[in-house]
Amino acid sequence: MLRLTASLDLYGNPTLRRRLERLGEVPVEVARELAKQTAVVLTREAKANLQFQSARTLGRRSGNLITHTRAFARDTPNGATVELYTLFYGRVNARGMEIEAKNVPYLVFRIGNRFFRKRSVIIPARDWDRLAIERTRAQIPRLTRQAVTARMRIAP
Fold this sequence. Notes:
It is built from 6 helices and 7 strands; from the N terminus they run E-H-H-H-E-E-H-E-E-E-E-H-H.
């Protein structure tokens, strides 16, 4: 499985660390809540990108790539981490790759009613994962407000 990691470390900056330590455990709890919400949004965005591109370029037949693509939030001592997991061919489709025949001289595949034989094929890169991460990052301020509001129990 492919693992893309985005980390949210609240204590990396010494000045920020001193200010946050006055609040006790609240910033770490907010970061963990933010990571959980971010994982949900990242999963939704990644699956939406795969569904959008599948009809034209990914040639999805079984839906396994969409089914097995998920983001998870993991707690760390200073905050949380969000990781996007997908199948190996999700990485191939995201980064691009040259595929060569392993045990036979040619790859054989069908397009329409015609069969083709090639020694290798180049899969072009499709940035479905990076686009999902960028769209999720754009929602971080809104998710942060929600996490702080939920933690502080203040009505929005």
